[in-house]
Design goal:
Elements: H1 19-23, E1 39-45, E2 51-57, H2 59-62, E3 67-72, H3 73-78, E4 118-119, E5 125-131, H4 134-143, E6 145-150, H5 157-161, E7 176-183, H6 185-194, E8 197-209, E9 217-223, E10 228-232, H7 238-249, E11 256-259, H8 275-287, E12 291-294, H9 297-303, E13 306-318, E14 324-336, H10 343-350, E15 360-369, H11 383-401, H12 405-412, E16 421-422, E17 428-429, H13 434-444, H14 450-459, E18 463-472, E19 481-487, E20 493-497, H15 506-518, E21 525-528, H16 546-573, E22 581-583, E23 586-588, H17 598-606, E24 612-618, E25 627-636, E26 643-653, H18 660-679, E27 712-716, H19 738-750, H20 764-780
Parallel strand pairs: 1-12, 10-11, 14-15, 20-21, 26-27
Antiparallel strand pairs: 1-5, 2-4, 2-6, 3-5, 7-15, 8-13, 9-10, 9-12, 13-14, 16-17, 18-25, 19-20, 19-24, 22-23, 25-26
Length: about 775
């Protein structure tokens, strides 16, 4: 780094400079924007999981006060609107290559803005009402009458893959859009044949939703003089939204400006465009006035892209001494009514062996359509599901075969000397010290003191349980990223970057990296994001990519900027450019006693009509593999099934840590998110009616401050060799092991009853039911 050591910013726990703006109401969230004369949009949504649309009767709605338009799928089709061009297949060179059945192309199901022929899930938009007020728009939507012919439906992934299931799409009559196998089948079969023990486990990690602080919103304006659209909408990446929505409208990308500033929660749910974004753009032009849409909370529960929903079957072959020999696995991902993202299936498939040196493995990865809301990448996309599968399988192996669960893991963890390590399905782990992570996690959780605490809990009539889960996750996160850096005469460094935050603190941590690279104060750096008239290239914030991609492209741009600075300094000092040095944040020449830092140089250069600026692009294909370990302790009331989390410890190897305060916060939030899924959260769909039954906070459980303990967390920095700063990722590791470790702890608490597993969410009723069933089974024997 070029900054003087006494001012070094990387690794410092600097307070987030964006927090003052966000906490004092000065944020710029989607619903904060309004335009003169704006109209309001409301959606008419299907009440059926699968139905043919016979007709849409809109005359009564059009006659209501304030209603400006009622538009249908046929209207959108007539105006030439295209489907959202989802591109769900991972494409970096190290991704597992998912294919359709028989190795063919993957049919994803076109995502029209408004359904034309059929509604394929409850909540699918079938008509749009625009009115002068939101109340009038909602009244108009209520007055639209849609005649449906109900059709057979399927909502469960395993049922959708079974012969004879109702077809969601005629183009995929068996509902299977992906069916690909990985690994060495012959080697796996030989290992299983020679194994002393085989342990099996099936699991279903159910469906959840992101529950963003701000429900999604969009405001569109059309300028007929310039033939140009503007959209205000929070997202995971404004550049991507611009490209996709321009394709929907059939216009050149230059005709659309997207403004995506502060994003009120994402976690993956906002990484892909929504139909309402295209609809407000279309109607703004059609009506000649701005159009705004804001989802209600119930609409968000019903129609935000959802997460998880993976069915797994795992078999582990072991030698008599506990050495893992091979793994057989099957994953079935429920993509919903159309395929928005295959990231959960692809990323999870690559990590089926977890943190362990399993010599041989075979995996069958399938994705199926169902009559449900589409799923998308959701925090730590695909990795918590497979981590839950392998870690719970190891717990079961330890319990059934008489091994200590820590000793069994320690025997089989990938060793540091094996790094870089290619696992049995081809994922190239870059670096890590997995055993050290586990040892540290058990130490800060006081694993050795658990027995005494369990005895004390028993005296109070409570059951204490202890769980542990190791994890490894991946971060790739293409596509291309660009940084444009300008040092201004006013003493500021402006950094334009395409990856944008949804609460992660990029304005602070990005500035810390630039401060060290350029040797300027953090407070002089302005990070510019979210406006596609300024940001021309960028992949957005997803897949744990932001800091690694930004820091890498910053390093490239800084090298260019230093070269540019040397040229400018050479002219000012009347010396050859190769005689100018840059060290400790200053430009100097042996032929002059004058020196400049970047800010001084830019001010002096402006007097001579020179600029200090640089641009760099970078596309990263090398993955990194953050890793760590979590330990959870729970106390169960056997009379009510109530579970209290009494201790939670986490160790995360994030590679180079830019701001430990932010990373610890990410771990806390990620753990809370995973704990919520393990214990309370569930997008439950009634199998008899296909109706989602969790449409409000009255019926969707959430983690709260008083339901979580103070977390004990440690950051480990084993640098990655794949990028200049050695960064891995820190935003998703808190979530990855949380499902497994919470369930492990609860099952450990209930093991005296003979309970071997519990389905998520492990609500008090589910825990009470497991205890009651175990007692009944024991009494019947």
């Amino acid at each position: 780094m070029n900054r003087p050591a006494e001012f070094a910013a990387i690794g410092q726990p600097l307070r987030r400079k964006e927090d003052l703006r966000l906490l004092t109401g000065a944020g710029r969230f989607s619903d904060d924007f309004s335009l003169d004369g704006q109209a309001y949009a409301a959606m008419v949504r299907s009440p059926h999981p699968h139905a043919r649309i016979l007709r849409v009767e809109a005359a009564r709605a059009r006659a209501l006060p304030g209603v400006l338009a009622v538009l249908t799928g046929a209207d959108a089709q007539a105006d030439g609107l295209g489907p959202i061009p989802h591109d769900p297949l991972p494409k970096t060179r190290t991704d597992l290559k998912l294919t359709g059945p028989g190795g063919g192309a993957v049919f994803i199901g076109p995502h029209a803005l408004l359904a034309v022929d059929k509604a394929r899930h409850v909540g699918e938009a079938v008509a749009l009402v625009v009115a002068d007020t939101q109340a009038h728009a909602l009244d108009g939507a209520e007055a639209v009458a849609v005649a449906y012919e109900e059709l057979p439906f399927v909502t469960d992934a395993a049922a959708a893959a079974a012969p004879g299931a109702p077809a969601v799409w005629d183009e995929a009559p068996d509902n299977v859009l992906v069916d690909t196998s990985f690994g060495d089948r012959a080697a796996t079969d030989r290992a299983f044949a020679a194994a002393d023990h085989v342990v099996r486990m099936d699991a279903h990690v159910g469906r959840v939703t992101a529950v963003t602080i701000e429900p999604r919103a969009a405001l569109a304006h059309y300028d007929p003089a310039a033939d140009r659209y503007t959209l205000y909408a929070g997202s995971g990446g404004a550049v991507r939204q611009k490209r996709e929505l321009a394709a929907v409208l059939g216009i050149a990308p230059a005709q659309l400006r997207v403004l995506s500033y502060d994003v009120g929660g994402n976690f993956g749910a906002r990484n892909r465009a929504y139909v309402e974004f295209g609809l407000v753009l279309w109607t703004a032009r059609k009506l000649g006035r701005p159009v705004k849409y804001t989802a209600t909370r119930s609409e968000a529960f019903l129609t935000d892209y959802q997460g998880r929903d993976l069915v797994t079957q795992f078999e582990l072959a072991l030698r008599r001494d506990g050495r893992f020999l091979a793994l057989r696995a099957s994953n079935i991902s429920n993509v919903g009514a159309r395929c928005v993202s295959l990231s959960p299936l692809g990323k999870g498939s690559a990590l089926v062996t977890g943190s362990y040196a399993i010599p041989a493995a075979t995996l069958r990865s399938r994705a199926v359509f169902t009559n449900t809301m589409p799923t998308n990448a959701y925090r730590s996309s695909g990795r918590p599901e497979v981590t839950h599968a392998i870690e719970r399988l190891i717990d079961r192996a330890a319990a059934e075969l008489g091994f200590d669960r820590i000793a069994l893991r320690r025997r089989n963890l990938v060793r540091p000397s094996a790094m870089p390590y290619v696992n049995a399905v081809g994922a190239p782990y870059d670096s890590g010290e997995y055993k050290s992570n586990m040892d540290l996690a058990t130490r800060i959780a006081d694993w050795d003191g658990f027995a005494a605490r369990r005895r004390e809990a028993k005296r109070r009539g409570r059951l204490l349980g202890l769980g542990l889960a190791n994890y490894v996750e991946s971060s790739i996160g293409a596509p291309n990223e660009r940084a444009e850096i300008t040092v201004t005469p006013a003493g500021r460094v402006t950094v334009v970057i395409g990856t944008q935050p949804s609460g992660q603190g990029h304005e602070t941590s990005f500035a810390q990296v630039m401060a060290d690279l350029l040797g300027v104060p953090v407070e002089c750096i302005d990070i510019v994001m979210g406006d596609t008239d300024v940001v021309s290239v960028g992949g957005g914030s997803h897949s744990g990519r932001s800091m690694r991609h930004a820091a890498t492209v910053f390093a490239k741009a800084a090298a260019e900027l230093i070269a540019n600075g040397k040229s400018v300094a050479a002219a000012l000092l009347d010396t050859p450019a190769d005689a100018v040095t840059f060290a400790d944040g200053r430009f100097a020449s042996p032929t002059s006693n004058r020196t400049f830092d970047f800010l001084e140089l830019a001010k002096e250069a402006a007097r001579h009509d020179r600029r200090v600026a640089a641009t760099a692009d970078n596309e990263m294909h090398d993955p990194v593999f953050p890793n760590g370990c979590a330990v959870c302790e729970v106390e169960v009331d056997p009379e009510t099934g109530w579970v209290d989390i009494t201790r939670y410890a986490a160790v995360d190897d994030v590679g180079r840590c830019i701001n430990p305060m932010i990373v610890h916060g990410q771990t806390h939030g990620g753990a809370a998110q995973g704990i919520g899924e393990a214990m309370w959260e569930q997008c439950f769909i009634d199998p008899e009616s296909g109706q989602p039954l969790c449409g409000s906070f009255m019926d969707y459980g959430m983690p709260r401050a008083d339901s979580l303990p103070s977390f004990k967390t440690e950051i480990v920095e084993v640098l990655s060799p794949t990028n200049p700063l050695g960064i891995k990722a820190g935003g998703e590791g808190g979530t990855t092991p949380a499902l497994a470790v919470v369930v492990s702890a609860i099952v450990d608490a209930l093991k005296g009853y003979g309970v071997r597993d519990i389905k998520m969410p492990a609500t008090p009723f589910a825990v009470w039911r497991a205890i009651a069933d175990a007692k009944a089974n024991a009494a019947s024997r």
